[in-house]
């Protein structure tokens, strides 16, 4: 009896009070919002594959207004679709909001050895960003262009078989084959094209379409997230994302061994073949130092200079590039193609631009830079379908005030981008229309498919280049034609927002 009384007094009551305290956070602050239930908050509402995250937020914004609060397990999150608020958090007050909304299952951003650019924060992020950015410079993009074009031509071979057959196929599947082929070659040491025969594809796809149960559990009980991460690290075959770490580790180890063997034979290292080479060679212009506690900072103070990526960091970077580069780019290509097929006049303008600018058999880096209208069409598709809105968030790292609202350390700010991208005050009355011309004079605010501020997507230029290159090859030979019934896309997904399918056919020009 005494044992049970002590258990209730010292364990159960404090735990219940803690969860009730968090759950009632916004009620106590007088901020409106959907409440959900204690312990869970509204976390369960984000587990429905048929109702993507961004669309759940958009519905709530219709009910609760521009800025409101939710709790997700132990996390307190302020949702906003006010562009001034977003600019304040993502740009002007970046120093107070330099972290992301994270889940313990993603690892400790300050301690975990394989933490990558996306999850890292503070000085560690600065260092990884400075060391990774050269991989996306003009110079590096020029180097990977021909690798991307090889994959584009490989895909063209498959598309050729479809042309003029009248058969509709799911272009999302074709684009996933393409983007995985590209990223496999530029970030994972893959030497030959493995299109339509890539054993990695189901694993990578399941990371985006599979269950988010581990995130759900970790959201409510962070300690379980730490345990699950340790478990999957020990037994990677249990979860696809951990298998990928294993595959990348083998590729990086093999490359180091090969470079060592070359060095022993006196063979000079040639041009970097891919991101693994770039990361092994990378040197930052910024000098980084380590203090006695192992923390990193960039400043001219005493300490050990560390200008390279470690072995684990290279694996982490390749991993995040694989994930971030595969799904998003395939989705962006799919939405653009879908919209082009529904708007023949826009498609014709893109085709005219491609015919005018891309006159040689290969599409050069310089020609890609001239495909302005095609880029507007891609941007307009990303405005209408902000597919990665789930990561448009920041964590408050220091108490502050944003537009008169006090925000406490630890609170997340999440953008409701689907509302923001359809805000008539920013985009005008024709906001629902697919109109690439609006990008001739774009608004200064309210567009964030690639995020905003210092943590803007590092791969944005690679994504635009990859998409333009493939679209240039497709559009100069074919016209994209929609399904006869013109059904609107069905949007699904628990991470990125994905069309369930994008059925199109190809007509030779
Ligand atoms: C259409 C394609 C893409 C979209 C829509 C997209 C979207 C995003 C978004 C919204 C963020 C968060 C930015 C923020 O917090 O402000 C992000 C970050 C990131 N993306 Fe992308 N991305 C795309 C392609 C790529 C590609 C091709 C790569 C690399 C191969 C990549 C690598 C990353 C990385 C490493 C980060 C973390 C950056 C940081 O925290 O410093 N992304 N992306």
From TrEMBL:
Its cofactor is heme. The chain crosses the membrane at residues 6-27, 214-232. It holds the Pfam family p450. InterPro entries: Cyt_P450 (IPR001128), Cyt_P450_CS (IPR017972), Cyt_P450_E_grp-I (IPR002401), Cyt_P450_sf (IPR036396), Insect_CytP450_Detox (IPR050476). Heme binds at residue 457. Keywords: Heme, Iron, Membrane, Metal-binding, Monooxygenase, Oxidoreductase, Transmembrane, Transmembrane helix. One of its GO terms (molecular function) is oxidoreductase activity, acting on paired donors, with incorporation or reduction of molecular oxygen. Belongs to the cytochrome P450 family. This is Cytochrome P450.
């Amino acid at each position: 009896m005494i044992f049970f009384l002590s258990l209730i007094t010292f364990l159960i009551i404090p735990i219940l009070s803690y969860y009730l305290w968090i759950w009632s956070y916004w009620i106590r602050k007088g901020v409106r919002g959907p409440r959900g239930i204690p312990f869970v908050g509204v976390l369960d509402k984000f587990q429905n594959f048929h109702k993507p995250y961004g669309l759940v937020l958009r519905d709530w914004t219709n009910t609760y207004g521009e800025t409101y609060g939710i709790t997700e397990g132990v996390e307190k999150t302020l949702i906003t679709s006010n562009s001034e608020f977003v600019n304040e958090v993502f740009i002007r007050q970046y120093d107070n909001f330099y972290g992301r909304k994270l889940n313990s299952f993603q690892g400790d951003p300050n301690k975990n050895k394989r933490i990558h650019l996306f999850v890292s924060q503070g000085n560690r992020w600065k260092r990884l960003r400075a060391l990774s950015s050269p991989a996306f410079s003009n110079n590096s993009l020029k180097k990977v262009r021909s690798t991307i074009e090889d994959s584009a031509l490989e895909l063209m071979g498959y598309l050729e078989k479809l042309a003029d057959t009248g058969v509709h196929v799911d272009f999302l599947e074709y684009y996933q084959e393409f983007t995985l082929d590209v990223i496999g070659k530029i970030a994972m040491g893959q030497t030959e094209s493995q299109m339509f025969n890539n054993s990695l594809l189901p694993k990578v796809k399941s990371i985006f379409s599979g269950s988010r149960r581990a995130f759900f559990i970790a959201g409510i009980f962070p300690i379980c997230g730490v345990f699950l991460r340790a478990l999957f690290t020990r037994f990677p075959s249990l979860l696809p994302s951990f298998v990928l770490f294993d595959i990348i580790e083998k590729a990086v180890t093999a490359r180091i061994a090969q470079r060592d063997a070359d060095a022993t034979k006196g063979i000079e290292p040639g041009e970097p073949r891919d991101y693994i080479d770039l990361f092994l060679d990378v040197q930052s212009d910024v000098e980084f130092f380590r203090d006695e506690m192992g923390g990193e900072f960039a400043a001219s103070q005493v300490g050990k200079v560390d200008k390279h990526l470690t072995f684990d960091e290279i694996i982490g970077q390749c991993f995040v590039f694989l994930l971030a580069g595969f799904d998003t780019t395939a989705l962006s290509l799919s939405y653009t193609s879908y919209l082009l097929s529904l708007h023949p006049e826009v498609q014709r303008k893109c085709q005219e631009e491609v015919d005018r600018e891309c006159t040689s058999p290969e599409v050069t880096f310089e020609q890609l830079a001239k495909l302005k209208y095609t880029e507007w069409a891609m941007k307009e598709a990303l405005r209408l379908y902000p597919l990665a809105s789930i990561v448009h968030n920041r964590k408050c790292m220091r108490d502050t005030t944003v537009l008169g609202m006090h925000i406490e350390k630890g609170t997340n700010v999440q953008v409701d981008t689907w509302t923001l991208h359809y805000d008539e005050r920013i985009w005008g009355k024709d906001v629902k229309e697919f109109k690439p011309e609006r990008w001739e004079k774009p608004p200064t605010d309210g567009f964030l498919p690639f995020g905003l501020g210092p943590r803007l997507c590092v791969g944005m230029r690679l994504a635009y280049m990859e998409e333009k290159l493939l679209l240039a090859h497709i559009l100069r030979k074919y016209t994209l034609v929609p399904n006869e019934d013109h059904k609107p896309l069905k949007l699904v997904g628990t991470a990125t927002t994905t069309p369930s399918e994008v059925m199109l056919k190809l007509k030779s020009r």
